[in-house]
Amino acid sequence: MKGFNTRSIHGGEEEKVKDAVTMPIFQTSNFLADDAKYASERSETFYTRVGNPTIGVLERKLASLFAGTGGVFFSSGMGAITTIFHSFLKHGDNIVVSKNVYGGTQNLLRELPDEGVEVRRFDQSDYGSITGLLDGRTKIVYVESMVNPNLILTDIEAVKAKISSSDALLVVDNTFLSPYNFRPLEFGADIDVQSLTKYINGHSDVVAGFAGFKDPEVESKVRRKMVQFGTNGAPFDAFLVNRGVKTLGPRMEIHNRNALAVANYLKDKPEVLRVSYPGLGHVPACYENCPGFGGVVYFEMRDRETAKRFMRSCSIFQEATSLAGVESLVTVPSLTSHASLKESELAEVGISPGGVRLSAGIEDIQDLIEDIKWAIKECVR
Ligand SMILES: Cc1ncc(COP(=O)(O)O)c(C=O)c1O
């Protein structure tokens, strides 16, 4: 198999359209039809909700980068997660999920009991408790590989070992690591779901999602649901993501380097109570060969007001809710991604009101450190 960067650039693009070197946008909702297309569940030249050549190229490229056999492109990360849940969870079923997941996913999980689906939670510090939560109606075990925002790593192999006697699918949200740093399908996950909005597109100009699979039957169920729900992504977004992903490897190298330098700088500052960045310490075995841990660094200041002053004293790190683009961003998660959680729920998942999430972009590291140095000085004045 060719290397990661070669596949990022050329993967899925083997067949050229009108001799174009890169895949053009098929900005069309509709295609000329025939009997073969009427009979096909996934023609790429029939109707764009079902398939589209620009989307097909991206799906094949990402499936290869995720170490999967196939994958489905969605309108957003949440579109992907919602579609996966509804592909496998019916009234009377249950889902086992780690307590610590992204706020948008928490909101979705809150809806499931109204649909007759039970949500059973476990603490990542106690993988042993998973076994007691499983039964014949457990259809999905759901975790994030690296947790938003405080960057705890889930031991995917330990979770897989605990559920090996169950038929439940292991679904891993790997948004915070990207396939460059880690590929959950290689460690026992059945589905790797990611918000393409983050590293994979990388330029903060698209909202999209993707799920990678290693079993074509599982993929087929999710694809059918995507077509029914209309959670498909758009051709123009697929074109942009296909362009963005070509530089994923080089961008991740810089994100990894910059964030590690930022974490090392912050950890010695007396104004900073705690820094979380996996590159600073011991990691579970499945992460030992990761080239790095991405651009996000989480740290805690004494209270929310200090955290807000820090955020607003930065100038290169811009105050914004997302992450993982080429430009550096800063947010206070208790005000944004986790605003839906009560104070007690925040404490339960280890997020402090004074917590700050930095997303180190790919600017020059000396400029990022200067920005942080200045903001720390300003926020404690
Ligand atoms: C870990 C994680 N998963 C999923 C999502 C949802 O992705 P999207 O915003 O593309 O719907 C996000 C968004 O921030 C996220 O951080």
UniProtKB/TrEMBL annotation:
Top-level taxon of the source organism: Bacteria
One example of a Gene Ontology biological process annotation: transsulfuration
Species in which this protein is naturally found: Mesotoga infera
Modified-residue entries (N6-(pyridoxal phosphate)lysine), positions: 198
Keyword Phosphoprotein attached: no
Protein name: Cys/Met metabolism pyridoxal-phosphate-dependent protein
Signal sequence, renumbered to the chain: none
GO cellular component, one term: cytoplasm
